[in-house]
Design a protein that fits this description.
single chain, 292 residues, alpha/beta, Rossmann fold, N-(1-d-carboxylethyl)-l-norvaline Dehydrogenase, domain 2, 14% strand, elongated
Amino acid sequence: MSKIAFIGLGNMGLPMAKNLVAAGHDVAGFDLSAEAKSALKEAGGAAADTIAAAVSAAEVIVSMLPAGKHVSAVYTEAEGVLAQAKAGALLIDSSTIDVDTARAVSAQAEVAGFAMVDAPVSGGVGGAAAGTLTFMVGGTATSFAAAKPYLDIMGQNIFHAGAAGNGQVAKICNNMLLGISMIGTAEAFTLGENLGLDAQPLFDISSTASGQCWRMPSYCPAPGPVPTSPANNDYQAGFTAAMMLKDLLLAQEASASASAATPMGQRAAELYTQMADAGHAELDFSGIIKEL
């Protein structure tokens, strides 16, 4: 059993922390929401009133936070993790943030004597609850090996992407591809419908032809062919358009920093911005078909 601090008990962090509790670990959680801390207590964890109280005795510290500015503050401010954690603690940040911040915080952790990995996730709230997340991990081989037993509790597919920050690189590249290809899939179904072709025969054909892709059997954006897809539940979100837009904008920020051409990623970000501006940010990202 390890003493674990979990910082950020939101829609993703809370079920991840609960899985660590269920595996027998001693988990103390910190969040600005009293309700979230109470939910962790009900699951057998403990609630901390401050970051310092959560991390002071922890052997492992996991964070799941909204953005780079939050990660930077939680780790580097005077009352933050690097100043308050005990020597030798392992740091795991599972937030999805910009690459530059991830690398900067990791470098500061190294200077302070801590092993740290960036380990953003894919799999959504359902995957967090089921413990089937995919983790994309950046950091040294030694840090990855230390983190993996804990990631194995919260996830099913654990990948070492390379040096610090590469977990974030893998996440934004993957999700940029997902956003672009969802738009392409939605365009195909929209064009077919406008030309008199029903969704089901197009699905049947493209699912076995050269247009086959993950979205077809798993996440079809057109109502009908895949009963479990959000398209058949009024586009109630598994992964919101707002979350997709966040990742697409991170990808655009990274592409500018790296002087990499991503014109399709840029266009995808523009289309999801339009969807959000139209008031549909909380719909599933496959709801982009309604905007076309």
